[in-house]
Fold each of these.
Amino acid sequence: MLTPQSRLQDFPSLATRTYLNTAAEGIPSPPVLEALAQYGRDKILGMDGRRLHEAQWHELRQRAARCYGLTPEEIACCSCTSEAMNLAAAALQLRPGDEVVVNDLDFPAGATPWMQPTCPATARVWRARQGALHSEDLIPLLGPRTRFVAASLVSFYNGFRLQVPALARVVQQHSPALLGVDVTQALGRVPLDLNGADLIVSSTHKWILGTHGGCLVGIPSQRASAWTAPMGGWFNLQDPFRADRFDSPAVSRPGAASFMVGMPAYGAVYAVNAALGYLETVGVTAIAAHADPLVRHFLTELQQLPVDVITPAETDALAGIVAFLHPQAERLHAALHAQDIHVMCHAGRLRVAIHGYNTAADVDRLLTALAGALAA
C-alpha cells in the first residue's frame, strides 16, 4: 500500500487510473476479496458453517475494539451508520424539552434522526466558521437540557478534523450530554484518540477498504444503560426464547449488544475483519505518515488556483479530505473523469480523498489536470 511494489500487488486496479475518492468508496485489498469467497465456502455448509461465521465475528470484535480503545464486549455491528444513529435516538428516549446538538459539517445520518417531526427534542445546530467548528460556538448551545451531542471526527463535507478528548471536555463541563462520534471518515486513515466518546460508529466501505453492509458500533460499558435500544428482534434480547415470552415484555441486552437486533451480516463481517487485518499489517500510523504530506502538498498548491478552498489549513485539523467550491464544478469533474482521475462532485463542491495507496504522482497529475481544466 505504501510502496510502488505493494501498491501494484495489493491494488492492481490503481495501476492505470488516479483514484482519489476513498471518502466515497474504498478499494478493497485482495484479503477482503478472498474473505468474501471464504464466506461463500463457509455458507454452503449450512448450519455447520455457523461456528465459522461466529469465529469471524469474534475476531472482528477484537480488531474493532483495538481501533476504538474498547473491549470486544463493548463492540457491536449493525448494517450502517444511519441505522446506528436511529437506534441511538430510540435508546435515548427523548422527551419534550430535551435538546440535541448537531452541526452543519456532519453527514445527514448524524443529524437527521434528531430533526424528524416525530423527535420530541429540540435540535440545535453548531455552525462552522471558515470551515471549522469552534468550541466557543458550541458552549452557548449546551445546558442542563442537552441530552446528546453528535459529531463526526472528520467531516465528510470538507475534511475538518475534530479533537475528540477536547470536545468531550467541553461537553462534560457545560452539560450532562452524551457525546456520539462518527469515525467513518477517519477509521483506517488517521490514528484515533476517542477518549471521552460515549458512542462510536463507523461505516465499513470507505477508508478501511471493506464492503457495504456493516457499521462498527462501540459503547463503553459505563455508558451501557444510557445506550440500550428498546427494540424488537432476537439477537439483541436477553432471553428471546424464554417460555413466558408472550406474557411479559422483551428485555434488550445492555449497551452495544442492543444495537444488533438481528444476527450479524456475516458476509460483511468476513470482509471487514479482513480489511482491518490488512490495515493492521500496514499500520494506520504509517498510512498517516505517508499520506498526510500529500494532503498538505495538495492543499498548498490548490490554494494557488482560482477555486474556493473550504478545508481549513490548520495542520491539526487535516485528515484525508480536501474540498473546494467552483461555479463550474460539474465541468471540472467531467474533465478530470475523462482523464481517468476520480474525485467526488456534489452541488458545486469537489472533494479529493488521499489514502495510503495514493502517491505524489497521483496528486501532481490531479493538480496538472485541474489547472488545465480551469484554464480551458
Amino acid sequence: MKTRRVGPTEYNVIRLGMLINIWWIGVRLYKNPITSFRVVRQLIHNFTKMMGREKLVRAFKTDGKYHWDMFNPAWPSKGFEAFFRAHLLELQPVNGNEQLLRRLLIAITKRCPLSCEHCSEADTLYQKDILSFEEFSTRIDTFVDKGVGQLVYSGGEPLSRFDDLLRFLERYKGRCDQWIYTSAFGLSQEKAKALKAAGLNSAAVSLDHHIEEEHNRFRGNNKSFYWVMEGIKNLQNEGVLVSINVCPTKEYIAQGGPSKMVEFAHQNGISIVNFLEPRAVGAYANKEVELNQEEKDSLHELSLKYNFNKSLFIYPTVLFPAGYRKALPCGGGRSYLLLDFDGTLYPCPFCKTKLPAVAQPSDERLCAAS
C-alpha cells in the first residue's frame, strides 16, 4: 500500500484517537485516570506551545498507520506506546528509575560508497566494522526491552551492511518503529521489497541539492542522484514512508534552494522534507558552515508556511527541528542517544562526548544518560 496524504478532518479524528491512547498508557502507568489526564494535558500544552498553537494540516497513512513527522512513531503501534510511555515519564516519573529514552540511533557501519562534503563521520569513515550482529543486537536488546519506541539505523551507509540490517529489522519488527537514514545508493526494487518485508517502517533519504550535478558534486559520486531517485521510487512502491534529509549550505539558502527543494519533493510525491543544520564537525570541522540567525529564520518560516496553511495541503510537511530549539531543547542524551559502530554511546551524532564505550548489555549506565 502506497502512502496516502490525510487531510485536516480525518487528522482531527486521528489526533483524538492518539490522545485517548496516550491517556490510557498513562492510566496503566499511574494507576489513576485523573493523574494521567493531568500529565497528558501538560504534554499537549508543551506541544502546542512549541507549535505556536497551530495545527499541522496533514498527516500520512501507510499500511493502516498514521505518520505526521520523522520524530514520533506511527500510530497505532507498539512503538508509539513505548515512545509515549517514556514521554509521560519525563513529565511525571513513577519511581525515578524508569528509562526515559524514546529513540535510539544506531550507526551499524562506517562503510559508505560516497565521499560527502559535510560528512559528520569523516574521522571514522571507512573503518572496519567492529561489533558482530550478535554483539550489536544484545546491546540494542537492552534498550528495546526497557521500552525504546523508535530505532533509526544509520552509518556510514546502513545499506553497506545489508544482510545484518535485514536481521536487525526482523528482530525488532512489531516492537519498535524502525527507520533508516540512507543515501539510497544501490537501493534496488529487490532491496526495497526485502527491507519492507523485514520490518522497515520509514526511510529518510539524503538529498542535498535539487539539481543532479550539484548533488553529485556535494556527495562525491556521479551516480548518487540517480540512486536517490531510484531508491525513493522503489521504497514508495513498497509502501514505505519516505522523507528526505537536506543539509542546506549558506550558498544554497542564498540561492533560494530550500523552496525549490520543497517544490521538487512535491513533484516527486515525497511526504516530508527535513532541513538539517550544517555543523562544524567531521569534514566541516573548523569551517564557517553553521547558519546565522537570519538563515535559520528563513528555514523556520518555510516550515511554518507549508505546515499550517490549508491551501498548501498537497505539499510535503517541512521540518526544521532547530527552529523549535527555544521551545524544545535538544533531546540528545536525554530522549535519544547514538550507539556507534564500536559500541560507544554518544548523546547525538554531533556531540562526541563519550558515554560508556563498548558497554556491556547488562551495564545499567546504558540507560542512565537522561
Amino acid sequence: MNRTLGVTLVAATAISIGCAQIPSAGTVAAAGPVSALRFARLVNGDGAVVNDAVVVIAGERIVSVGRGDGAIPAGATVTDLRAYSAIPGMVDVHTHMTYYWDHAPGSRPFGAGNTRRTPVELATVAMENARLTLETGVTTVRDLGASNYVDVMMRDRINRGEAVGPRMFVSGYGMSKPRAPVAPMAAAGSGAGAGAGGGGRAGGAPAVPTTPAWMRGQITDIAQFDGAVKAQVDSGADVIKVYGSRGTGADTSTTQTFTYEEMKAVVDAAHKYGKRIAIHSYGAPGGRDAVRAGTNTLEHAIELDDATLALMAKQGTIYVPTIDHNRYYADFHTDYGYTDDQVRGLNQYRAKNLETARRALKAGVKLAMGSDAVHMMFGQNTRELGLYVQAGMTPLQALGAATINGAEVLGMTDRIGRVAPGYFADIVAVQGDPRSDVEAVLKGVKWVMKGGKVVVDRR
C-alpha cells in the first residue's frame, strides 16, 4: 500500500545566504529526471518512522516520501539502499572550517607557518575539512569565526558548485576584546579565527593594514558594536559570533570579557540587522549574562545555575555545549604541544561540560550538536552525540539535536533537518537502527546525499 508521510508545508519564501537564494519548502514540481531511493526504514529526529521507505527526488528537493513498490513513480531511476536506514543530513552548528593544518615538519596547528597562504589559497586547501565533514553525514554547518572572510569564500564556492562541501552558514570575524592594544592591521597567526576572547588566532594572510580594528571584530568600546556587526553583515556573514569569555584550545579559563551591557548591545545590533547570534562563554557568569542579553545560542558554558537554565528553557535559548572538543585537544595534545597539566585541565572541563548538559536536559533546555571542530577534528564531527546519550538523551533524541534542533538554530526548519516533501534532499544512509543505537550514526555512515547529489558512497 502506498502511504505518504504527512507533512505540513508552508508558503514558499526565500532567505539570503551569501549570493544564493534558498527558497523555503513548498510544493515541488518534478522538473527533470526523477529518482527514487529505497531504504529499510526512514527515521526522522522527531520519531517519525517509515518502514520500507521510498524517497522520491527531483533536482535538489524531495518530492514525496512513501512506502513500498507503489510509491515509486513510473520511469524513476531507483537506487536500492534497503540494507540501510535513512536519516536526515545532520547539522553541525559550531565548526571552524577554515582551521587547516598541513602537518609541515616543525609546525604546530596554531603555528605562524600557516600564514604563508593567501586567503584564496586557504579557502582551497580547507576544502579537505569540508570533505571530511560530509563523510560524517553532516550536510550543513554553522561556521563560527574566520579571518579575512575565508569562510565566505568557502561558502560561496560550495554554493556555486565549484567545490563539494556542506552547506555553510558563516560569521566572518568573531567579536572579541583584545588582550593587548590592537595593531593597525590584524595579527597573523594560524587557523582562521579571530581568537576566543581576543586570543589572536587570526589566519590566512594579514588583513588590509587600513582596516579599522573594530571591523575585524576587535572591540574596545561598546559604541563600536553596531558598526562591527554591520561590517560583518555587509561582508557576507549569515550569523554573528561573539567571544564573551576567555577559553580556547588548552586554555579552559572562564574569565568573562564582555559585560552584560556590552553583550546586550551586540545582541541588539545583530537582531537589528536581521542576524542570529552565538555567544561563546566558557564560564557560568558570562553564560548567564549572554542568556539574559538574548543570545540565540550559548556555546560551551559550564556550571550554569538553575535560574539561567530555566530562562534558557523559557525563552528558547539553544545550548551548544561542544563537550567533545576538549577530548579532541587532549587526544592530540602532542601535536599542539600541550602539557600533562593542560590535558588534566581539559579533562576536568569536559566532565563539568557533560554534567552541565545533563542538568540542562533535565531543565528542558534544547541542545544542538556542535563539534567546535578544528584541524584534525574534521571527520569526528558527530562524536558529540555519544556524549548527549551519556547526558541522558535517547539515541533518537540525539538525532533530533543533530537535525531538527540544528535546523532551528539556523532558522531553516522548513528546508533542512527532516526527510520530507519540499525539503532539500539531504539524506544519509547508515548501517543499523539509529532509534536504538547511537553508534549507527557515529560509525555507520555509508552513503550521503546533499541537495540531491551523492557526495559520499562507501557501500
Amino acid sequence: MKVFKHALRQYRSLTPEAQDQRRGLTYALVLHGLLLLALVLSLFATPRSPNPVQIELWAEGDVAIAENQDEPITAPDEPEPEPDPTPVAPKEPEVAPEPTPVQSTPPEVDPDIALSEAKRKKEEEDRLKAEAARKAREEAERKAKEEADRKARAEADQRARTEAERKAREEAERKAREEADQRARAEAERKAREEAEQRARAETERKAREETERKAREAAEQRARAEAQRKAREEAERKAREDAFRAAMLGDGQQIAGAAGGTANRNQVGGGGGNDGYGAQVRACVRPNVIYNTPARNGRNNPTLSYRADLNSDGTVRSVRILRSSGIALFDDAVQKGIAKCSPFPKPPNGRYPSYIDGEYRMYE
C-alpha cells in the first residue's frame, strides 16, 4: 500500500505530458503481460504424450508401397508410348469394374517410430518452453531496464526540479535580503536626511529667533530712546507752555488754581469754594458730572486725587489721567468720568486752551 501511495504521489507530481506517457507505458505493459500469460497458458495446455494417429491412403492403379514409411512414395517409371501413325477406330469406352471393397485395418505403428516422434515432440515442447522462457526473461529484463531508466529519468527530473526550486528559493531569498538591505539603507538615509533637515530647521529657527530677539532688543532700545526723547521733548514743551501760560495768566492778573505758578489754595480746578474765577468755572462744569454716593464726612479726612486733563485746541477733552489716587477706586473712576464729560472745558481768560491742565479734586469742600 505504501508503494502504491508513493507511486500515486509521484504520478500526481508529474506534468500532463509525463502523465500521458506514463499512462501509455502502463497500458503497453499490461497488454504485453496479458500476451505473455496467454503464451505460457497455451504451452502448458499442450498435451505432453499425444495418442498416435492412423491415416488410410487410397490410390488408383498399381502403386508401389515403400517398405520404409520414412521414404517418399513415388510411382514407377513407365516409358511414354509412341504415337501410331495408322488411324485407329475409336473404341467403345470400357466400363471399369467396381472396386472390391477392402477392409480398412489400422496400420501397424513401429514402437521406435512412435518413441522417436514422442521424443521429438517433447524436445520441441522443451525448445518452445525454453524459447518462451527466454523471451519472457528478455521481456522482463527489457521492462526492468525500461523501468530502471524511467525511474532514473524520474529521479533525475526530480533532482533537477529540486535543484531548480532550491536555486529559485535561494535567488528569492537573496533578492529579499537585497531588497531588505536597500530598504534599510533608504530608511537610514531618510532618517539621516530628516535629522539633518531638522537640525538645519532648528539652526535656522534659532538664528531667526536670535535675529528676532536682537531686532526686538534694538527696536525696544530704539523705542526707549525715542520715548525718552519724546518725553524729554514733551517735558521741554510742557515747561515752555507752562511758562508761557503762567506768563499769560499772571499778565491778566488772574489766579488759576492747578496751573503752574498759580495760587495753591483750596479752590483747585474742579474743587469747591467761592472763587468766581476760572477754577469756579471748571468746578461748575465737572462737579455735576461726578456721579458718586458721597458718605458722611468723618473728622478731617478728605480724600483727594490729582489729575491731568489733556485738551485739544478747541477745549475738548482728549484724555484724563489720574496722577495720584485718592485711595478709593470708585471715587477716582467717578471723578475721571466727570472730568471727561466736561467737554469742552471752560475757555481760559486769554482765549487760548493749553494742551493740558493739572488739578486736584477733593471729596469734601
